[in-house]
Design a protein that fits this description.
- The protein has 77 residues and is α+β, with helices and mostly antiparallel strands.
- It is built from 2 helices and 3 strands, in the order H-E-E-H-E.
- It has one domain.
- A 3-stranded antiparallel sheet has the order 2-1-3, with helices on one face.
- The C terminus is likely disordered.
C-alpha cells in the first residue's frame, strides 16, 4: 500500500478520493467513497478488529476526481 504522503497527492489542492469496500459485510459488500483520512481510520479499525477491506483510487464516472464531500458509491457485485 502507498504511504500516507503519497496517498494525499503530495500537496495537491484537490483531495484524492478512494473507494472503500467492506468485504465482510454479508451477502453484499458495502462500498462508499472517502478521503485519505477516512482510509487511514478504516485501515486502523480493520487491523484492530480483523475486518477485511479493499481500498482503490476513485475517479468520478465523468473522469474527474471526486471532491471531499463525496457521497456513497454503488455496491460492487
Amino acid at each position: 500500500m502507498a504511504g500516507f504522503a503519497e496517498m494525499t497527492g503530495g500537496g495537491r489542492q484537490e483531495a484524492r478520493m478512494y473507494e472503500i469496500t467492506y468485504l465482510d459485510a454479508g451477502s453484499e459488500s458495502l462500498t462508499h467513497v472517502g478521503d485519505v483520512h477516512e482510509v487511514r481510520d478504516v485501515l486502523e479499525r480493520a487491523g484492530r478488529d480483523g475486518v477485511k477491506v479493499r481500498v482503490r483510487p476513485y475517479v468520478r464516472p465523468d473522469g474527474g476526481h471526486e471532491s471531499a464531500g463525496a457521497g456513497r458509491a454503488e455496491p460492487q457485485p
